[in-house]
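Technical note accompanying the year-one report. For the benefit of new consortium partners, we illustrate the data format agreed upon in the data management plan: each record pairs a sequence with a structure-token string. No post-processing was applied to the example shown here.
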Amino acid sequence: MLQSNMLQTARDRVALTVASRSEQADGGGIGELVSFAIALLRRQYAVILITAALALAACIVYLRIAPPTYTAQVQILLGAGSRADFVQKQSLLAEPDVDVTQIETQIQILKSRAIAVAVINQLKLADDPLTASGPLSSFLHRFRLRVSPPLKDPEADPTSQASESLIAAFQGRLTASRVNLSRVIEVTFDSSNAMRAAEIANAVASAYIADQLNAKFEASRMATSWLQERLRDLAQQALTADRAVSAYKSQNNIVSSDGKPIGDQQVSELNSRLVAARAQVSDALAKLNRYETMVRTQSIDAGSGAIDAAGSDALNSPIINPLRQQYLELARRESDWTARFGRDHLAVVNLRNRIRDVRISILDEVKRLAEASRGELEVAKQRQQEVEKQLNEAVSQSRSVNSAEITIRELESQAKGLHGVYETFLQRFMGSSQQETFPIAETRVISPASPSQVKIKPKPSLVLALGIVGGLAFGIGLGLLRDIMDRVFRTSAQIESTLELPCLSLVPLLGGLKPDKQTTRSQQADDDLRRRFISTHSAIHHAVVGMPLSRFTEAIRSIKLAIDLTPNKTPNQVIGITSAMPGEGKTTIAATLAQLIGHSGKKVIIVDCDLRNPSLSASLAPNAVTGIIEIINGNRTLEETIWQDPKTNLVLLPAVKRGPLFHTSEILAAEEMRRLFDRLRATYDYIIVDLPPLAPVVDVRVTSPLIDCFILVVEWGRSKIDVVQHALNTAPNIYESTIGAVLNKTDIKAMMRYDTYRGDYYSDTHYAHYGFSDSDTRI
């Protein structure tokens, strides 16, 4: 229980550390992003450079094989000409204003199929390979003409002589666009021949102008023919309408002045007078109501309400206005004297009496004005009644001729309309007749195309720049993808965040070590077999002895320190070394850790419990014939089986594999194994157990009763994060007893590209101050 609580405390500390690092990363902002970008470039610079080089090479190849393209430009002005005055006035077809819609319409006409076919037939582009879209298309076009030449029909439409592919290729090379906000359209054509491009561009402009002229001439001719026939009909209709008007006026004795009947003019005048009379009555009534309201609602003792509420008419009175000013002055003095002498003072009382007299005078004047307004109202009402009487008489007189007036107005309107239409059509007809003999193009070429001396594409500088930029961008994206897909352990922070285990040490990668041989290998093997000495042929297991001041040895010391400082440490501690997958270096860590402990003077034994693949025994005691299995079976004693290292006082209990073992988990879980470990606990200070990996076999799970704590070995850059997590999830009893993980075979120089938070930690300069040297290591 104590062990579980201590391990939980360690994991909580790891969680707090990870959370703190996450908060620092979140607060870093732009600095963290820059650090990540720099680290990404340092990790993936090879991929980025190779991708950029390939892109640049592809651009160079493209520049070598791509044919040059020349562009010819011709500018066309819409609505250019200022036509003659008589043509502008007599034009039958109205010229539309040149707006955005009209210009876009003309651009579509320029790029239309009709213009393309006309230019193709005019310049015989069907036999010209230069109009093809590329070398391959040109070759296929020539081959098609030789294999199956087109049949020529003299009666066929000329537009059918151009194939659809040729028309599409022509339209693909032709562009038309508006120049800024002007009425100028710029037509361009691309070709691999500069002379041919200019010729085709000018031909497109000529074909467009000719099409505009033909369309206008045909429209004018058809409109003139229709207009001539229409004029005859309009002349006859206008004559008939005039005769009908004259006949109807004679029958009804209708007399008019300025085109209007006399009765209508009289009604209109009386109606205007009635409106004015009613307005005068309304104004007089409103003025009277205001005065009566003032008189009715106010009294002498009502305060200043009557004076304050006086209307604009009362205030304009030459009598009320001085009285009101006098009233305001007396009121101000009364208020001032009341505050100074008191309300009952004789002077104040006199002032109030004078104020009352002024108010009485104002009210009397308002009553007089009300009587005057009442008289004005009576006069206005009489005038209104007189006008209404006259209007009713005039309306009664005009009703008798209403039906006749309506009919005569209708007849006159028809006659007038027919005359107007006839005059308009006659002018249009005369203008159209003259315009047919004087065709004018409203569009003209202001800048003809000329052969270009500079090719527009491909542009070497632009292509190379795009290649480099695109290659770098694609390389960065590819590097970022590789970085994201790199689901392996690279830093201690990954172990702490994903496994929630402390990272005990970063063990660097070793290589190139040479053992200290004093005898030949055969002699050493015979001596080891006779004395059961651990073999010195495998030099990697002697790194801590041969290089005590190396970074590798310091990393192993870090593991031992973590074991010693574990709160649940007992006098006889059993440490299990395992990994998720084979080949991650657990055997090397176990052997070097045991040698380091033994070299320090402690009694230590390393037990090879990887019964199916005893790589530790094969390395340290390759000639062993008995091992832990024989002890469990009772065939050998512990003293007859163990091997020793005279240099480090290390003791090895090997495992000998004589054949396939099918029940290794039962062997490790047997009672005899438990008694063996109890005996080892009583004899040795440390027991290092080299265990099988977690993922392939289940043997490690049954060893939890034998092991005090476990150490998980993870290989740098190789161990998959998902695999290690799955292995620990399937062995929860092992995970609960694991005190931490070791990142093995670490590339220290590469770590500076991955662990941006502790980049200086991996520099060799800091270790050189304390005498550390890795001259014999390959990192």
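Partners are asked to follow this layout when depositing records. The chain has 28 helices and 14 strands.
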